[in-house]
Amino acid sequence: MVRTIRSVRTPIAALVLAALAAACAAATPTPAPTPTPTPPYGLPPLVLPADEAPHDFSTEWWYFNVHLWSEDGRRYTLHDVVFQIQELGSSRTLYVRQAGFADVSAGTHATAERVRSEPEPLSEQAGVFRAGFGDLFISAQDGRRYRLVGEVGATAYDLTLLATTEPLLHHDDGLVDFKEAGITYYYSRPRLDVSGTVTPAGGTAVAVSGLGWMDRQWGNFQPVAIGWDWASVQLDDGTDLMLTRVFDAGGVTVESYATLRQGDGPARLLSVGEFTFAPAGPTWTSERTGTSYATIWRVAVPGAVDELTLEPLVGGNEFVSAARGLVYWEAGVEVRASDGRVVGQGFVELNWPLGATP
């Protein structure tokens, strides 16, 4: 069963939920599974590309963010994510897809949320995933190829994404301990070449291309209240950076770390004190929820990445989920050096308590 929850047009609002599915044409040799070192938690190691498929865990998701440019000079951003959720006390599995599409040139943003229910989790072959919502779907195949077919408001998109670098395994082995919230598998595909079409409201399809990022997480998360700050950064020099802070209901930091990779170099785990990720500027307050979000962020890695400023491309990026009861901020950002030059792009996601202020 597919049920459309909402399609909202606002001056800006954003968040992504995306799924993966088998699609893509040209056959390429499937890479041999690559296990990571045996983790210290008594859990099996992460194995790619097999672990791109669904798992028998309480929660998992496939998340994408994308920066797009059209042949006619317009710029867009997209976040698209699918959650797989096993309901407590039930054999039913829910698939929730959330997407936000911004027309940067017009300064507008629309969001959409859809829900699909199944009696059992999807059974897929190793490394392959597909979540369909009517004619719309997200798919993944062989750890390198993805496809997003969706609609947000009156805008439609059909995008193919191809990974061009090795995955980033966070915390070295791809397992992160969130303390009382549980342990999660977590890795990213930080460089995805994107091509496809965008069909604006009342218009014809236009060719687009750009750069994408994919996040994968799954685990048996505990029902505790946590919030987080998160950012993905893609610099023009080939540097990729993920930063996050997870905090409890009282605002106490539970986990804070970053993962850095410069060009073809190895991934580097950064602990507290080895990087800066902090709000630095005006806030935006939601009339709908009363929550104030920091809109500009400063990022730096001493000795590796000079201070950067992350600025939203459009304003007011709050996403309110009817299906999951989540409210958070998700914004495509421009990345600027200290001299004002644009040196990359990224996304910022903030999940703060309702009514909170920084």
Write the layout of secondary structure elements.
Layout: E1 2-10, E2 34-35, E3 47-48, E4 59-70, E5 75-86, E6 93-103, E7 108-118, E8 129-133, E9 136-141, E10 145-152, E11 155-163, E12 168-169, E13 175-177, E14 183-199, E15 206-219, E16 226-235, E17 239-248, E18 253-262, E19 268-270, E20 276-279, E21 283-285, E22 292-294, E23 297-301, E24 305-312, E25 318-320, E26 327-337, E27 342-351
General description of the model:
- This protein has strands spanning 2-10, 34-35, 47-48, 59-70, 75-86, 93-103, 108-118, 129-133, 136-141, 145-152, 155-163, 168-169, 175-177, 183-199, 206-219, 226-235, 239-248, 253-262, 268-270, 276-279, 283-285, 292-294, 297-301, 305-312, 318-320, 327-337, 342-351.
- It is mainly β and 358 residues long.
- The protein has one domain (2-24, 45-351): AttH-like domain (AttH-like fold).
- Strands 16, 17, 18, 19, 20, 23, 24, 25, 26 and 27 form a 10-stranded antiparallel β-sheet that branches. Strands 4, 8, 9, 10, 11, 12, 13, 14 and 15 form a 9-stranded antiparallel β-sheet that branches. A 4-stranded antiparallel β-sheet has the order 1-7-6-5, with no helix packed on it.
